[in-house]
Design a protein that fits this description.
The complex is a heterodimer of chains A (288) and B (247). Chain A is mostly helical. Helix content of chain A is 75%, strand content 1%. Chain B is of the alpha/beta class. The longest helix of chain B is centred in the middle third of the chain and has 14 residues. The mean pLDDT of chain B is 92. Classes of the chains: A mainly alpha (288), B alpha/beta (247).
C-alpha cells in the first residue's frame, strides 16, 4: 500500500514537471504554426527588414523593421538607465549601507516591483510625458525616452535584487583579503567584489532586459505608437509588444494581418527565450 | 618595539573578546600566539591591522601603537599596507600567478610593467616560490598546489612591502611537507620583517617562534621566550595546555 502511494505521488509530480515543459512547447508550436502563414504573403527578408508597417492599407505592407528598432531603442535606453542606477543601488545595499538602511531599501525595492505596470504607465503619462516635452522642447512627450525611463523603473527591482544576491554571495574572505592588502573600500568594491560577482550581475542585467522587452501596457501608453523608423530617442516609436496588443483585436482571424501578428509574437518569444537562457548560463557559471 | 599594546580590551556586542592585554612585540622576531578555540588569539591578531572593524558591534579601548604611532589615528589603508596578513586558507584571486602578486602594487599605484615585474620577482623569491613558478607566471593561480598557493599569498602580502606580517593559522589546511616549507620561509623572513603567528599547533610555535604568547578566555596568560614557555612555564594553565591536558 505504501509502495503504491509512493508510486502514484511520484508519477503525479513527474506529470506536473512534464506539463510545464509541454505547455511551453505547445505554445511555441502554435505561435510558429500561425506565424509561418505570413510568409505566404511576404518573404522573410521583407518581413524582418521591410521599412513600412501598413497592415490594413491596400496593398498591405508587413515590414516590421520599425517595430524591431522601436523595441530595441526603448530597451537599450531602459537598460542603460536601469543598469547604471540598479547596480549602483545593489552595491550600496550590499556593501555600504548600515543594516537598518539596508532593510528599508530592500523593502522599498520590493514595493517598486509590486506596482502594476499599467499604473506606472499612467503615472508616466501624466507626469513624465509633459516633463520630457517641456525639457526637450518637443511637439510631443510621447517618445522612446519616456518609455525607456518608465521601463527602467520596472526592470530595476529585478536587477537590484538579483545583483544584490550576487554581491552578497561573494565570500567574506575575498573582502578581508583585499582589505588586508591595504585596499580602500572603493578599491575593494570595484576590483574584487564587483569582479567576483560579475556573472551574477550580468545575469541580473539579462533578466532585467527580458522584463523590459516583454513589457507592453506601459510602453503602449507612453511611447507614442508611431510605426516609423526612429532616428533618435526623442521620437515616438512603437514596440513589437504594443503592436500585438493594439492590433490583435481588429485583425480578422485567418487574415494576413493576423498571421503577421503571430509572427511578431514568435520573434518576441525567441528573443525572450534567448535572453533568459543567457541569464541562466551566467548564473550557472557563477555557481560552478 | 614594533608593536606595543597597553590595556587592550575588545568587545563584539556584549561579548568581551579580549581583556586587559598588555604586551610588546619586538622587531625582527617571530611571536607565536597559542591558545584554545575562543581564547581571543584571532581577535588579537585582527586588532593589529584593524580588520576587526569589518565586524558589526566591534568596540575597543586601550592603546595600540605601531612604531610609536597610535594605530587608530593612522590611516587604515596605510596601516594595512604596513601590516600584511596571510589567512588560514590560501585564497588566490581568480587571476594568473603574476597578477596575484602584482595586484597589491598595482592597487597602490605601481603602473609600469617593468617595475611590476621587479616587484613580483622579488616577492616570489622572498616567499621561496620563484624557482617553482618562474616558468608559468601566466597560469591561473588555482593550478598551484595548496602549499604553493599559501606561499603565493605570502608573496602577495610581501609585494606591498609591509613591515609586519600576520599569519592566521597559515598551515591549518596543509600537509606536513608544505607546512615545513612555510615554516622555513617564515624563519628566513624574520631577518627583514616582524612576524606574528597565530597557530592551533603548539609544536609549530615551538619550532619557529622566538617568543610565545598563551591566551585563554580573552586574557594573555603568559608571554615569554619560546624555550621557557615550552620547558618551564610559570603558569600552571600554560603547562596544562602545552601538555595537552585541556583545550
Amino acid at each position: 500500500m505504501r509502495r503504491l502511494k509512493e508510486f502514484v505521488l511520484q508519477k503525479i509530480v513527474l506529470l506536473c514537471g512534464v506539463a510545464s515543459i509541454l505547455f511551453v512547447a505547445l505554445i511555441f508550436l502554435f505561435l510558429v504554426k500561425e506565424g509561418l502563414n505570413v510568409f505566404k504573403a511576404v518573404s522573410p527578408s521583407h518581413f524582418l527588414l521591410g521599412r513600412s508597417w501598413y497592415p490594413i492599407s491596400e496593398p498591405a505592407q508587413f515590414g516590421i523593421l520599425p517595430l524591431i528598432l522601436g523595441s530595441l531603442l526603448v530597451t537599450a535606453g531602459a537598460t542603460v538607465i536601469s543598469v547604471a542606477i540598479g547596480v549602483a543601488c545593489a552595491v550600496y545595499i550590499a556593501e555600504v549601507a548600515r543594516p537598518a538602511v539596508r532593510e528599508t531599501l530592500k523593502v522599498g525595492i520590493e514595493l517598486l516591483a509590486a506596482i502594476p505596470s499599467i499604473v506606472l504607465g499612467f503615472i508616466g503619462m501624466v507626469t513624465l510625458v509633459p516633463w520630457v516635452k517641456k525639457i526637450f522642447h518637443l511637439p510631443t512627450g510621447l517618445t522612446a525616452l519616456s518609455g525607456s525611463i518608465m521601463l527602467a523603473f520596472m526592470a530595476m527591482p529585478t536587477i537590484v535584487s538579483i545583483a544584490e544576491d550576487a554581491l552578497h554571495a561573494v565570500p567574506r574572505s575575498y573582502k578581508e583579503g583585499a582589505y588586508a592588502l591595504g585596499a580602500t573600500r572603493w578599491q575593494t568594491i570595484h576590483r574584487v567584489i564587483l569582479r567576483a560577482a560579475s556573472p551574477g550581475i550580468a545575469a541580473a542585467v539579462m533578466l532585467g532586459i527580458g522584463r523590459v522587452i516583454g513589457e507592453t501596457m506601459a510602453v503602449m501608453m507612453i511611447t507614442g505608437n508611431a510605426a516609423v523608423i526612429p532616428h533618435g530617442i526623442l521620437q515616438p516609436v512603437r514596440t513589437l509588444t504594443a503592436t500585438i496588443a493594439g492590433e490583435m483585436g481588429e485583425a480578422a482571424v485567418g487574415s494576413e494581418h493576423y498571421y503577421a501578428l503571430f509572427a511578431i509574437g514568435t520573434l518576441l518569444f525567441v528573443i525572450s527565450f534567448g535572453i533568459n537562457v543567457t541569464a541562466d548560463l551566467l548564473l550557472h557559471k557563477r555557481r560552478s | 618595539m614594533k608593536f606595543s599594546l597597553r590595556d587592550l580590551n575588545v568587545w563584539f556586542g556584549s561579548v568581551h573578546a579580549l581583556t586587559d592585554v598588555t604586551m610588546d612585540i619586538p622587531a625582527n622576531e617571530i611571536l607565536g600566539v597559542i591558545g584554545p578555540a575562543n581564547s581571543g588569539k584571532s581577535t588579537f591578531l585582527r586588532t593589529l591591522n584593524r580588520l576587526n572593524e569589518l565586524k558589526p558591534n566591534f568596540r575597543m579601548t586601550g592603546d595600540v601603537r605601531l612604531s610609536g604611532a597610535d594605530i587608530n589615528k593612522t590611516d587604515v589603508d596605510l596601516l594595512r599596507k604596513k601590516v600584511g596578513m596571510v589567512f588560514a586558507l590560501p585564497l588566490p584571486l581568480p587571476l594568473s600567478v603574476f597578477d596575484n602578486v602584482a595586484y597589491g602594487p598595482k592597487m597602490h599605484g605601481v603602473r609600469t610593467k617593468k617595475r611590476q615585474k621587479e616587484i613580483v620577482e622579488r616577492a616570489l623569491k622572498e616567499a621561496y616560490l620563484w624557482d617553482e613558478v618562474k616558468d608559468r607566471l601566466d597560469t591561473p593561480a588555482s593550478k598551484l598546489s595548496g602549499g604553493q598557493q599559501q606561499r603565493l599569498c605570502m608573496a602577495r602580502t610581501l609585494a606591498v612591502e609591509p613591515e609586519v606580517i600576520l599569519f592566521d593559522e597559515p598551515c591549518s589546511g596543509l600537509d606536513p611537507i608544505s607546512t615545513a616549507k612555510i615554516e622555513d620561509t617564515m624563519l628566513r623572513l624574520k631577518a627583514n620583517y616582524t612576524l606574528v603567528l597565530v597557530t592551533n599547533n603548539v609544536h609549530q610555535a615551538s619550532r619557529v617562534a622566538d617568543k610565545t604568547a598563551f591566551f585563554l578566555s580573552g586574557r594573555l596568560i603568559e608571554l615569554d621566550d619560546t624555550d621557557k614557555i615550552f620547558t618551564a612555564p610559570s603558569d600552571k594553565r600554560t603547562e596544562d595546555y602545552i601538555g595537552g591536558r585541556f583545550g
